Amino acid sequence: MVKPFVPQLVYVEPRALEYPLGQELISKFETMGIEIRETTSHNQIRNLPGDNDFQKYRIAKSTLVVGVRKTLKFDTSKPSAEFAIPFATGCMGHCHYCYLQTTMGSKPYIRTYVNIDDIFEAADQYMKERAPEITRFEASCTSDIAGIDHLTHTLKKAIEYFGQSELGKLRFVTKFAHIDHLLDAKHNGRTRFRFSMNDEYIIKNFEPGTSRQAERIEAARKVGEAGYPLGFIIAPIYLHDGWKEGYKDMFEKLESALPPSSTKDLTFELIQHRFTKPAKNVIEKNYPMTKLELDESKRKWKWGRYGIGKYVYTDQEQEDIKDTLGRYIQTYFPNARIEYFT
Ligand code: SF4
C-alpha cells in the first residue's frame, strides 16, 4: 500500500508566509520535523541535494515548495475543460510514461500555491467573460493535485468554491486513493471526480509510487457513495501480453465495487499510449530499467502539437483498442459515456 505523501524536504518563499495557508503549512511541517529551507522563487530551486542527476531527480520528487502563484493567466485545457486551474505543479509519483517528465524538465519538484483566493478571483473573471456559458476548469493539468491535498486541502476548498458557483465546474483526475478528506466536501455535483485507472499489470510495472488498482477502486467506490459525478481516465492504454483479459478484469472489479447510483452519470476518457523522441530519451534516463516498449518501428507516426511528432499504435491496433474497451464499457456500464478516444 502506498502511504500518503510526506515531503522529505520543504522550501518556502518568504512571501508565502503572508498567506494563512503558507503559515499553516510551514508550522505543520515544522511539527513533523521536516527540514525547511528558504527560496527566493518557487521556480528556481538551485541547491537540491544529490550527487548526480539520477539522485537529484528522486530527491526533487519528494521535495515540496510552498510558493505564491504569480501567473494568473490560465492555459486552455481541451478537450476535457476550457481552462487549466493552477493550484500545484509536479507530482511525487514515478510513472515511467508521465508527461511531466518532459514538460517540467529540470524542475521535477512539487510546488503548491498558497494564494488560492487570487486563483479563485482569476477563475471568476474567466467565468464572467464566458457567461452565460458554463466554464469548466481542470485542476490536474500540471500535477496530481489530489495526491498532495491531504496536506494542503486546496482542492477541497476549490470543490466547495465551485460547489457554490453558478457558472463554473471543476474536474480533476488522480492516481491516488488518499481522498477521504474530500468525501464530505460540499460539491453540489459540480466537480467531476476522476480516477486514472489501468489494468493491474500496467499499474504494477509502470506506476511506482502511486496507489494500487484495488486502492483506487475502493476510493472510487467511496467517491461514488459521496454523490460526486464520477469518471475514469483509462490511460495510457498499453498493449501487452494479456491486455484484453487485464482490462476485462479491471472493468469487472469496477462494476462489482461501484454503487449503482454512481454509474448513471459515469464518464470514460480513453487515451492510448504514445511517446515522442524527447520523451523516450527522458524516460530512458530517469527509469533506465523500464520494461516500457518504446520501439518506434512498431508504431505509427503522427503529427503532434508544437510540431513534435508522436508514436501511437497502428490503425489496426487502435481499432482493436476501441472495439475491445468500447465493448467492455457497453457490457459493464451501459449508461456510461465515452467522452473521447485519443
Ligand atoms: Fe505523472 Fe500522474 Fe504518475 Fe504523477 S500520478 S507521476 S502526474 S502520471
Structure report:
The chain is α/β, with parallel strands linked by helices. The protein has a single domain, classed as pyruvate-formate lyase- activating enzyme. Helices cover 35% and strands 21% of the residues. The strands form 3 sheets. An 8-stranded mixed β-sheet has the order 4-5-8-9-10-11-12-16, covered by helices on one side. The chain has a 5-stranded mixed β-sheet with strand order 2-1-3-7-6, with helices on one face. A hairpin with a 3-residue loop joins strand 4 (76-77) and strand 5. Iron/sulfur cluster is lined by residues 91, 93, 95, 98, 100, 144, 175, 210.
Which residue ranges are poorly predicted, with pLDDT under 50 across at least 5 consecutive positions? none
Q: How much helical structure, as a percent, in the residues?
A: 25-40%
Number of strands: 16
- Average of per-residue pLDDT values: 96
Architecture in CATH? Answer: Alpha-Beta Horseshoe
Largest sheet: 8 strands, mixed
Oligomer: single chain
User: Any idea what the shape is?
Assistant: globular
Name the bound molecules: iron/sulfur cluster
Helix-strand string: EHEHEEEEHEHEHHEEHHEHEEHEEHE
Distance between the termini: 31 Å
| CATH top level label | Alpha Beta
* Count of discrete alpha- or pi-helical segments spanning 4 or more residues: 11
Strand order of the largest sheet: 4-5-8-9-10-11-12-16
Which fold name fills CATH's third level, the topology? pyruvate-formate lyase- activating enzyme
Spatial extent as radius of gyration = 20 Å
Structural class: alpha/beta
Which strand-content bin applies to the residues? 15-25%
Q: What's the domain count?
A: 1
EC number: 4.1.99.14
Protein name: Spore photoproduct lyase
Pfam families: SPL
InterPro entries: rSAM, SPL, SPL_Bacilli, SPL_firmicutes
